[in-house]
Amino acid sequence: MVARGTHGRRPTLEEVAARAGVGRGTVSRVINGSPRVSDRTRAAVEEAVAELGYVPNTAARALAANRTDSIAVVVPEAESRFFSEPYFSGMVGGVGVALAETNLQLLLTFARGEREQDRLAAYLAAHRVDGVLLVSVHSDDPLADRLLQMDIPTVISGPRSADEPLPSVDTDNYAGARSAVDHLAGRGRRAVAIITGPLDVYGAQRRLAGYADQLGDSGLEYTEELVAYGDFTEEGGRRCMTELLERRPDLDAVFACSDLMASGARQVLREAGRRIPDDVALVGFDDSVIARHMEPGLTSVRQPTRDMGRAMTELLLDEIALAAEGLRSSTRRRAERHLVLPTELVVRASS
């Protein structure tokens, strides 16, 4: 005799989750044999399955049997940027740590232009991978929407807006920027400039917002004269620092929204005869190897890139498990689909 759910139906995944006291994603992981479940949780889920007589969606399980056991890390950036910025190596390192606990293989691909994205879309449409990790997404990049339309399990490294439909993992850019400005104001700096990231990246927008709000809370004035719009590159940092010194030679602090841009800004400050931190305090964002090896050491907002890569992978595995059960990821609670990891200000000699 087949057990029935609360309304005489065949028991659902949600009812199993409620009986076991876990989330639906956890039930899916147990059913699909994921190793990322504790023995205690696995036993609770198996007991709930037995008590309710739950039978998995056989059609979805048959589809899951055709899985490729591989996922793709897709980077819509030039290869040169990927290999020059520590952010990317940290992310991929975290992905590798998470995949070490599975039998999945990792595919790394670049898809910057329309032609490359068309080729990638055709590859993905042929079900060559089980899911996609999309890293470094710009708001006007159509790739994320194409993946959404193709209904491929996808997780992105930071939302494109506050209403992002795809699951995402981000760092708290807003709080990180506020901590940088609060630190500089607390050290008596009164003309605090910012070198932003590209504002078609939501994370860069949030850093600028955090900077502006903390200036007000610290009793300092926000002025466009102290804002230079960068691109997360070292050359961008040089260009922006040159602009800022021309507009506001009296500035006494700079918050660069990446360590690479801080490195470029440092070069210009030194060429201009400005001592760091005596004349101008300098703070970066990332706490990458660059920050630790600069002279003087760079104060920087630590962004947990390895943790982000690992969390993205774990979230993607949950999305794949849900897809195998025929469930839509959009039914999950927002907190489960959009993770924000904390930042930490690491103070060094530059400030």
Automatic annotation (TrEMBL):
PANTHER family: HTH-TYPE TRANSCRIPTIONAL REGULATOR GALS, LACI-RELATED TRANSCRIPTIONAL REPRESSOR. GO terms for molecular function: DNA-binding transcription factor activity; transcription cis-regulatory region binding. This is LacI family DNA-binding transcriptional regulator. Keywords: DNA-binding, Transcription, Transcription regulation. It comes from the Bacteria. SMART domains: HTH_LACI. It holds the Pfam family LacI. The lineage of its organism: Bacteria, Bacillati, Actinomycetota, Actinomycetes, Kitasatosporales. Residues 11-65 form the HTH lacI-type domain. Gene3D superfamilies: 3.40.50.2300, lambda repressor-like DNA-binding domains.
